[in-house]
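Record pair follows.
FIRST:
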Amino acid sequence: MEFEKLYKKLEETDINDFYHVDMDFMLEIIKMGTADIPDCLRIYSVISQWYGNSLRGGVWTYYEIADMQDLQLTAQYLSCCLWKEFHQMFCLGIHDYQSPRFVGNFNYPQEWIDESESIDKWIWNNEQKLGEWQREFLLTYRDEVCPL
């Protein structure tokens, strides 16, 4: 599906059904490969996966495998966002999960686990607002994304 068609679908989809459009955008992003996507889609992908992992198995499962450069890019973008709490909650879980101290044994500090639980709770309590944010984010970058 082309991005132009996805944007049309986005405009026609009720915010309560946004997850359908999110899935379609993510599939298109995955098809592009990691080397070819612009920063706006990289940021969108990070937020979508972060949010989705939280709802499925806990946000720590995302941070554990996430690319640190992608996390930093997204954190930098969110630092300029008017929704400061979003930035704070996203950054709260960024730790060095790939440190040799943890690889293979997953013996993360209890503080990290506690933080991830508070992030999950925050995501659950802000699910509607996060969907609205994602929708607005996509619309903001429409002119950049559609020609891809």
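SECOND:
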Amino acid sequence: MDKLKNSGFYKLKFFITPQEFKSLLQLFEQRQAQFYRTNADRTAYDYDQVYEAYQTFYQYFTAGEKRNDVHAFFVYSISVASNQESSGFFVRNEGVSFPYHGQWAEEELPCIMLSFPKGVQVNLEDEKGKYYIYEDIRDHMPLTYAFFDEIRDSIQKIAKPLRFSAQDTNAMKVQKPSVRISHDAMHDLSQSWRFSKYGLVIQGK
């Protein structure tokens, strides 16, 4: 039996404006989700604090001039409980790498990744001893998976795949990361110092 079947994560990668992010937060608020910092104390944060943190993150990456006074990061574990189910998501900022004259650029473009485990670890035992397998989380936590699907649908309604051209050695190559970006976020990002420094061009405005 393949014990790693159903291992891994469902992932959503996106970059949207703070106002659009607030509409996502409202979905979490409806489910009474709790946001925690991923530290030893599991510090809890309310929705206003999470929104402000996202706003700071967004403004850092859409600024017209480089800022050294802010360390932009956005990392939380999210606890969701519905009826008999208790599960969670993990959200963090990630970088989108791109080529620049034959090598990877120093800086990266931003995105947020929301992840949700594909499986639930089930401990078993046979004549050879104890072992575990991962069973499909959709069977164990259908309500939580349906919520993840709801978030995905919301993001797909306001954001489309990020496509941009980067300076390569011989020509402008279109980059196709697995990231969705909203129209307004695309406009703001295209005005940022990263775009002007590296000569990036948004495709399909």
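COMMENT: The helical segments are 18-30, 47-62, 137-140, 142-158, 183-190, 193-198.
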